[in-house]
Specification:
Blueprint: H1 5-22, E1 28-34, H2 38-45, E2 52-63, E3 68-76, E4 86-94, H3 98-108, E5 114-122, E6 135-139, E7 145-146, E8 163-164
Parallel strand pairs: 1-2, 1-4, 4-5, 5-6
Antiparallel strand pairs: 2-3, 7-8
Helix pairs in contact: 1-2
Bound molecules: inosinic acid.
The site of inosinic acid (IMP) has 17 residues, from strand 4, helix 3 and strand 7.
């Protein structure tokens, strides 16, 4: 096990408080990136003591089960009106940063009042695009991980803890 459910629970509380502190006024829009962020978002919304609106985007990149191809597509957009609203984009994990960069460009075009990023996990050594993450749960190495929403070929999302997947030797 890499990160336990209890470690996640404590860290999500801290992230929720940080988000609330940075958004003292008015309503906040949280936009989760499906599918991987569903569990993180569900816990995070209960840790942010603010009036909130929620929506989701679905992004996909072609590639193998564990490697992005670098080409991202928006499969489903948010329908919430975010123009003039402070927005926090909620990601499960930032690997190369290509998905996040694409989604930030997309959301910025909708003119939110502010746009920040929360990511449960970050793999800084693998970034290929320069992205700023305002709220990081845990920084990890280059390993592929599953659990707490994260999958390998659609499996393991339901696990309450986060585990490293041992890659078969090529
Ligand atoms: P990026 O565009 O390379 O940053 O990839 C981001 C997306 O790839 C994440 O939202 C995940 O869906 C997926 N991903 C990257 N690394 C992992 C991992 O270690 N486990 C599970 N999914 C991952």
């Amino acid at each position: 096990m890499l990160i336990s459910a209890e470690q996640i629970r404590r860290r999500v509380e801290e992230l929720g408080e940080a988000i609330a502190k940075d958004h003292p006024h008015g309503s906040l829009c949280l936009i989760g990136v499906l599918k991987g962020s569903f569990m993180f978002l569900a816990d995070l919304v209960r840790a942010v003591p603010r009036s909130l609106r929620l929506d989701f985007v679905t992004a996909a990149s072609y590639g193998s089960a564990t490697e992005t191809s670098g080409e991202v597509r928006l499969l489903q957009d948010a329908t919430l009106e975010i123009s003039g609203c402070p927005v926090v984009l909620v990601e499960d994990i930032v690997d190369t940063g290509i998905t996040l960069g694409f989604l930030l460009d997309h959301l910025r075009s909708k003119r939110p009042a502010s746009l920040r990023v929360a990511a449960l996990l970050d793999k800084p050594a693998r970034h290929r695009r320069d992205v700023t993450i305002d709220y990081v749960g845990f920084r990890i190495g280059e390993e592929f991980v599953v659990g707490y929403g994260l999958d390998l070929a659609e499996e393991y999302r339901q696990l309450p803890d986060i585990y490293v997947v041992r890659q078969p030797q090529a």
